[in-house]
Amino acid sequence: MLKVRTYPLGPIQTNCYIIKDGEGQCLIVDPGEEGSRIIEEIVKMNGKPLAILLTHAHFDHIGAVDQVRDHFSIPVYIHREEQYWLMNPDLNGSSRYPGLPLISNKAADHFLQEGQLKIGPFQFEARHTPGHSPGSVSFIFEDAHFAIVGDTLFKQSIGRTDLTGGDTNTLLNSIEGKLMSLPNDFIIYPGHGPSTTVGDERESNPFLK
Fold it and tell me: I want to staple 191 with a disulfide (CB 3.0 to 4.6 A). Which of 29, 101, 125, 151 is the partner?
């Protein structure tokens, strides 16, 4: 049985997720800020991190990548279309906001492609869901009936499309084709805000009517 823990981090309260199995092995998704807190939480739960997965490379999702990666000596996975965003503050958006630190990480270790992935005991699917950003990816855990979708879909909202590489029609096609095709009871864990379900969004999300 997988357990998903949610940690809203940093000034934008970006959701970092830790997915843990019964043996303590875990995946870290979007360590956006507060790297020391993420490390502390994993140590507290006796977690054994295997990898960092990135839904996309906007600054608020990648701010603690190197701190967490280096502490646990684990690889980072990102979609190839955003491989340079990790290192480039203009692409990841951190240069747009005076007063916030410029984010520049080391290169990713692996590039995500659509299809099934296996990392240790974790088996899941990566689905390319561009629109919010060109390399946005959603992680589908079919057996556990949940998906981590980054800033593609929110509770009664969708991701913004006015940043580099964003496109509204592409985003809506990604949601319809890659997320709304999931069963109604699938839990959706977004990049910000509370979780929801596919059925609730199909029924009440005003952007999907």
Answer: 151
Q: pTM of the predicted model, to two decimals?
A: 0.97
pLDDT tier at 99 (50, 70, 90 boundaries)?
confident
Secondary structure in 3-state letters for 174-185: HHHHHHCCCCCC
Q: Which positions ≥6 away from 159 have C-beta within 8 Å?
A: 131, 132, 136, 150, 151, 152, 153, 166, 171, 191
Query: How confident is the model over 113-126, as a mean pLDDT?
Result: 96
Tell me if 117 sits within 8 A of 124, measured CB to CB.
Answer: yes
Name the amino acid, one letter, at 186: F
The identity of residue 97, as a single letter, is Y
For tokens 């692996």, the residue is 110
Distances (CA, A) of 127 to 104, 124, 161, 205: 26, 10, 19, 21
What residue numbers bound the domain in which 104 lies? 3-208
pLDDT of 4 above 90: yes
Q: Residue 158 pLDDT > 90, yes or no?
A: yes
Can you give the CATH number for the domain in which 193 is found? Answer: 3.60.15.10
Number of domains present in the structure of the chain = 1
State the average pLDDT over residues 180-199: 98
Among 135, 136, 149, residue whose Cα is nearest residue 182: 149
CA 201 to chain centre: 19
